[in-house]
Every structure is written in structure tokens, then in C-alpha cells.
Design a protein that fits this description.
By secondary structure, this protein is of the alpha/beta class. Helix content is 29%, strand content 28%.
Length: 262
Amino acid sequence: MRTALLQSSGRPGSVVENLKVLDEAAGRAAAAGAGLLAAPEMFLTGYAIGGDIARLAEPADGDSAAAVAEIATRHGLAVAYGYPERDGRAVHNSAQLISADGTRLAHYRKTHLFGRFERDHFAPGEQQVVQAELNGLTVGLMICYDVEFPENVRAHALAGTDLLVVPTAQMHPFQFVAESMVPVRAFENQMYVAYVNRAGTEGGFEFVGLSVLAGPDGTARTRGGRGEQLLFADADPAFLAASREANPYLKDRRPGLYGSLV
């Protein structure tokens, strides 16, 4: 499945403008044959927007979800994106996957909140593995800091995730996560990992770009620079099956030895 990564911070504070950016990217992605467009963490509103996070937060099935579903349907491809979710009094840092026919396939709340900024604005999610079937692949969702916990990604591997989509807001000086850690996660868990980042400065944060789709062989199928761009790479089920057959990590595990980890 051709996958498009929208490396962009959009227009922080404006849902309307970010939907326009998403729409334009979806058109370009569809024209290039992509079956999935992935946008960064908190893409619909912006990340470093302080109190506007709570003001702009919406339910998972709110107006913005309907607008994204319309974009997905009109361009004929699935869309994964990050946004602040309102659930009663709680606000979650969430990601949603919407299919090419507008169906909401999967919804995920970030389980590991990074730093005081996120802990001040969000409640953590409690569901570790969220998946959906898309174009012959089992697609999983995760957000940014979550992928830095090996237990999280291993749980997806054991649940059969083929392509892990990770909307992110990766900032300086932690670019080694995109450069080194994400390809290792893909290799050690035998899956594709699509890590799609924001770019540029926002509030007090400098987002580093460097979005990557890493393959199960640990190589980058595509790698972004530091600016805004639309990247493309393929998640190939046949290559994934061959790689899993050749790599013994998951088969050679000895779970009985790992109880002390939890």
C-alpha cells in the first residue's frame, strides 16, 4: 500500500485552515496512488496552542471528523490524523483513522504523555493496542512518545500489526528517535512504522521533521528533511511476510523469562 506522510505543522490555531492543508495533501497523495495519508500529532489544531487545546477539542465523531471523512471519500484514500479529543470534561491527545469510504476505522488516545506541557493539558489513554484492517494490512495507531517504549511496539507486533502509524510532534534535541530508534523498532518487531512529524517552530518548540517510513529490514523507505513536504513509500505485504520468515525475533522469544519487567 502506497503511504503518504504529510510532514507539516499546518496552521496552528485554525482547524479550518488545517482542513484545507489536509485536503490539498489528500489530492496530491491520491494522484500519486496512495491508499493512506498520515498527518502529524495534533494536526487539526496545532500542538503548542496552550489553552486553545481545550477550546478546540472535539468529540471523536464531531464536525472535524465529518470533514476529514468527506476529504477521504472525495479523494478515495484513507486518512490518519492527530487532534485533541473532548470526552466529557477530559481532553485526550488522540489519533483517528478514517477509511476511503468515510468510515471511522480506529481511534486511539495517547497513553504516554510527554513532559509537563502534555500532562497539564491531556488525560492519558488506557488502551495500548488499537488496530484496523486496511487494504490487506493490519494498521495500528500510536502517538509520538508512545513509540519510545519498546513494550508498546512489541504489543502491536504480538497482536499482528503490519503497519504502525505514528503521528508525532518530535522536537529538538530528540531527533535521534526519528533517525535511529524508529528503524530499530520496525526491525525488532518485524513491521512497517510510519512516523510522521511536524516541522518548524511553534510556541517554544522546534519540530525537527525527519518523518520516516521504516521497513521490517530496518531501512528507511522514505525520509523527510526539516521542512514541510509530502513523502511517499510503499508498505509491501509480500516483503513483510518474507522478512518475518527470515527474522527469528518473535519466534525466538522466551516470555517466561520476562516476568520481572512488569
